[in-house]
Design a protein that fits this description.
By secondary structure, the chain is an alpha+beta fold. The protein has 2 helices and 8 strands, in the order βββββαββαβ. The longest helix has 13 residues.
């Protein structure tokens, strides 16, 4: 889903697990930002389903207009941040932690 130019924004939606955009019973989250080498929506499509399928991710967005192509992930506090890097590596891209 595209919003406002070239920024991709997604909220994980799995039946019965969300109320107002938050997973029930999971109050604590963390936001992690990654610098990526993605260039277009086709690139994003290669990782979109994996990001959407992760239960620990509340929401994510990727700003393709930012020179650093920043991926912002809001995830459960206990979520493993390395799994994001692994998804990108497996798809042939780079995701380096930018801010945690």
């Amino acid at each position: 889903m595209k919003t406002g130019g070239k920024q991709e924004t997604h909220t994980s939606k799995q039946e019965g697990k969300h109320s107002g955009g938050k997973k029930e019973g999971k109050a604590k989250t963390k936001t992690v930002k990654y610098k990526t080498n993605m260039k277009c929506s086709d690139c994003v499509d290669k990782v979109k389903s994996q990001l959407n399928d992760l239960d620990v991710i509340e929401a994510w967005s990727l700003d393709l207009e930012d020179p650093d192509r920043i991926l912002t992930v809001v995830m459960d506090e206990e979520g493993d941040i390395a799994v994001i890097e692994s998804i990108f590596t497996d798809a042939g891209y780079v995701a380096e932690i930018y801010e945690c």
